[in-house]
Amino acid sequence: MSPDSGINELHGLTPEEQERQRQEWQQELTMVEQEIQTLRQVLASKVKMSQELKRKLGISVWKEFQDDMSQGIRNVKESNVYQKTESVIKTTAEKTTSILGGFGSSVSTKLGQLKNSESFRSLEEKVGSAYENVKTKVVTSRSSSTQSFDEALREAEANRKANNGSVATPATTPTIPEDRPLS
């Protein structure tokens, strides 16, 4: 027999008293079950009445769901855990932004230094003058239609040789050592 079987409560009673106690409990159980059934019927009736009143007031299931969700979200946002998490996320975002901002400004600074370097200026001048010479010859040749692009290019090279006294070499990208700063 298990401890919750009620046998312990009947221990020490005579067989007639035990039978009378069992009948009393059985009657009490029957009454409690009837009350439960009555309460279920009353509850079902009240639920039905509530639904009818809500329908008359224009309160739909969807509206109730929305209200419940809004209240739930409000409760979550007001909780300490949410407040702490939100604070940590904001702090992390601010730190990340400042780190990335610093990285961007350092790249801009290095590019500015490269652009102002002597090697870059020299390359820029060579490319710019070659472009201008070819452009001038092509524009001139279009108007007279007697000189081809190849002829204009050869003539520009000849002019450069005559002006500088040296053979034109193709422009190359300057080598920048990785272990030294640009400046």
Automatic annotation (TrEMBL):
Organism: Cryptotermes secundus
Keywords for this protein: Coiled coil
Lineage: Eukaryota, Metazoa, Ecdysozoa, Arthropoda, Hexapoda
Annotated segments matching region Disordered: 1-24, 137-183
Family note: Belongs to the TPD52 family.
Protein name: Tumor protein D52
Residue spans of biased composition, Basic and acidic residues class: 151-160
InterPro entries found in the cross-reference section: TPD52
Start-end of Low complexity biased regions: 137-148
Domain of life: Eukaryota
Compositionally biased tracts (Polar residues): 161-175
PANTHER family, alphabetized: TUMOR PROTEIN D52
GO cellular component: a single term: cytoplasm
